[in-house]
């Protein structure tokens, strides 16, 4: 709290550790450097205002789009962008948070403008190009402004462009018949899961790294849904899916399938190497675990659950090694979900209904207690290492 240091200062003066003159000088210096922060209602209003403003502008433009001449359409799209970014520049000194919000709204509106204007130039002939242009605009905004909305938007749009480009190629005449086999869905599911882990591993300490914090939150929010999508893709592998995975047989050309797997695995690993340097090797282990899981998780056997639980344990161990609490928490959630799924699928059906409910209740109570104790011990190890110079950041602490 803001007055904690004042109480501590009063104790030091009472204990005659510092003289009153020094205490007064310290108090003046602290009060001079304090800047008022934004309250939660203000942040909520800013976020809601940006969403409503961007949505309203897009709806207004779309409602009158057919009534406008081509030149008017292009001019209106450009005018909206100039107005948003101009208002952001005007408010940057008096209200920096509003400037960030307006620049973010301008970056979102850029995507709508690209696809609306793209109708004039037949962009729908290759619609993934619009996502690429939008991602490039977000990247340019991040390079110029260094604000988190542009980084978050670019970090979402680049993978979305690659996935859309992959799906378009697979459905085009060059990629074979529509559908393309199981590998069409397996490639993006593996890529998204590995990229979520790469984003999650972006921070490397407690230093001021706001960009890495953005990637951390994106990876943390996307990890569990990405894991579920990957599980569904792996569990639905057909009988000849392993041959498709090994590029031995399939409806896609071998060159296209090999390129898809190379980008799906290579791009997140390259990004991990760029973010973490030589310590990116756990991501390589994760890539091997993901690819091996494509073969192990279908058909579903007890070994499938063991393999998925191993992934959660490895994530916990990685969090302990890097002193990252969020990886410990997410790894614990993965292990808990695996144990619960194994009980419901393999054990509960073989028991009477009453015994199954009793067993499920005991599993939730005792298993939850055991996992929570394990999680607390892991976090306590991080806290104990902090006194010896190790970092103990969590997902909620600023770096």
Question: How would you sum up this structure in a few lines?
Answer:
By secondary structure, the chain is mainly α. It has helices at residues 4-14, 20-33, 40-63, 70-90, 96-118, 128-145, 148-171, 183-200, 210-235, 241-245, 254-276, 281-296, 302-322, 325-347, 353-386.
Provide keyphrases for this structure:
15 helices; mainly alpha; 399 residues
| Shape assignment | flat
Distance between the termini: 18 Å
Number of helices: 15
Global mean pLDDT: 78
- Relative strand content: under 5%
DSSP, total strands: 0
Architecture overview:
The chain has 399 residues and is mainly α. Among the domains are: 42-121 and 132-157, no CATH class; 197-202 and 209-286, no CATH class; 300-383. The chain is built from 15 helices and no strands. The longest helix is centred in the C-terminal third of the chain and has 34 residues, at 353-386. It is flat and about 70 Å long. The protein starts with a helix and ends in a 13-residue tail after the last helix. Mean pLDDT is 78; it is low at 173-178 and 385-399.
Helices and strands in order, then pairings?
Layout: H1 4-14, H2 20-33, H3 40-63, H4 70-90, H5 96-118, H6 128-145, H7 148-171, H8 183-200, H9 210-235, H10 241-245, H11 254-276, H12 281-296, H13 302-322, H14 325-347, H15 353-386
């Amino acid at each position: 709290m803001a007055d904690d240091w004042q109480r501590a200062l009063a104790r030091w003066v009472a204990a005659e550790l510092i003289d009153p003159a020094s205490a007064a000088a310290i108090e003046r210096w602290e009060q001079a450097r304090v800047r008022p922060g934004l309250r939660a209602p203000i942040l909520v209003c800013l976020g809601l205002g940006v969403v409503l403003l961007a949505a309203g502008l897009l709806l207004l433009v779309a409602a009158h789009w057919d009534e406008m001449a081509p030149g008017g359409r292009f001019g209106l799209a450009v005018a909206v962008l100039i107005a948003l970014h101009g208002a952001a520049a005007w408010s940057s000194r008096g209200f920096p948070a509003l400037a960030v919000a307006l620049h973010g709204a301008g970056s979102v509106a850029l995507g709508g403008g690209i696809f609306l204007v793209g109708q004039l130039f037949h962009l729908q002939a290759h619609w993934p190009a619009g996502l690429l242009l939008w991602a490039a605009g977000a990247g340019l905004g991040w390079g110029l402004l260094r604000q988190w909305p542009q980084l978050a938007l670019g970090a979402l749009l680049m993978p979305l462009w690659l996935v859309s480009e992959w799906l378009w190629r697979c459905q085009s005449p060059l990629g074979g018949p529509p559908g393309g086999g199981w590998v069409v869905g397996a490639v993006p599911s593996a890529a998204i899961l590995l990229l979520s882990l790469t984003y999650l591993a972006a921070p490397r300490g407690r230093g001021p790294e706001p960009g890495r914090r953005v990637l951390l939150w994106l990876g943390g929010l996307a990890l569990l849904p990405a894991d579920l999508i990957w599980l569904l893709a792996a569990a639905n592998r057909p009988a000849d899916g392993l041959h498709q995975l090994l590029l031995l047989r399939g409806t896609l050309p071998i060159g296209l399938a090999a390129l898809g797997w190379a980008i799906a695995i290579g791009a997140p690993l390259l990004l991990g190497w760029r973010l973490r340097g030589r310590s990116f090797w756990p991501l390589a282990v994760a890539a091997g675990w993901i690819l091996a899981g494509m073969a192990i998780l279908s058909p579903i056997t007890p070994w499938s659950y063991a393999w998925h639980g191993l992934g959660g344990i490895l994530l916990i161990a990685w969090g302990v090694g890097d002193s990252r609490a969020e990886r410990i928490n997410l790894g614990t959630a993965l292990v808990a979900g695996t144990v619960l799924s194994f009980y419901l699928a393999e054990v509960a059906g073989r028991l009477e209904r009453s015994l199954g409910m009793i067993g499920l209740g005991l599993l939730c109570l005792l298993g939850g207690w055991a996992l929570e104790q394990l999680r607390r011990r892991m976090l306590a190890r991080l806290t104990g290492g902090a006194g010896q110079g190790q970092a103990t950041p969590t997902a909620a602490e600023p770096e």
